[in-house]
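Lab notebook page, bench 4
Experiment: in silico fold of construct C2
Operator: M.H.
Input chain length: 234 residues
Purpose: comparison with the prior construct
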Amino acid sequence: MTEPLIQLKHVSKVYGAAGRGRGEAPGVTALEKLTIDFHAGEFTAIAGPSGSGKSTLLNLIGTIDAPTHGEIRFQDRRVSGLGEDELADFRLRQFGFVFQAYNLIPVLTAVENVEYPLVLQGVPRAERRARSLEALKWVGLEREGDRRPDLLSGGQQQRVAVARAIVHRPAVVLADEPTANLDSKTAAALLDMMLDLNKKHGITFLFSSHDPVVLSRARRVLHLRDGKLQDEAV
């Protein structure tokens, strides 16, 4: 087997622990001693009830948050100890993010929203427009590029969010409850589209979700409860 793309080694996350004085309540443990490998090309769901640590795990993987204990490595590079500027650049280039609330910029058109990561990377205007239109085509919205988010359905807005997440060709797309605001039919269509991107273009997807639509399509499912890894289904 190839080397892991992402490695978590004995990773824990405790909120409110730093600077705790004598007699104060202990911090809240969100994740406890997780050791997990993820490989390129995965289509993996992290499942569990509310409060199980799913979103916290994605935030640690995506370097939005830092572990309290343990180590995270990306392509065998230790990232859990990088400085803020290094982390920001690393995050911008290596990860794409999809959120349940879409997080589109309302005053921008669909194609301008998709372009945004490329703007941050300093990609020339003509190139970023061509790549953004290609990404919209991949998600089936090539005719909607000039429309603003308020003129798109919820499912279309989430497809724009997926296009934005993949336009800069990240190593991993992290999707936090991406179907939470969608009806079951729209959610199924979105997941089928993402699975197609995974198969055709080798894009790695990691989801946090308790949605059966997501879990039924994932090729690997990790179950969390109370911050601990319970079991794994493949």
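Observations: Helices lie at 54-61, 84-94, 110-121, 125-138, 154-166, 184-201, 212-217. The first strand starts at residue 6 and ends at 15.
Next step: discuss at group meeting.
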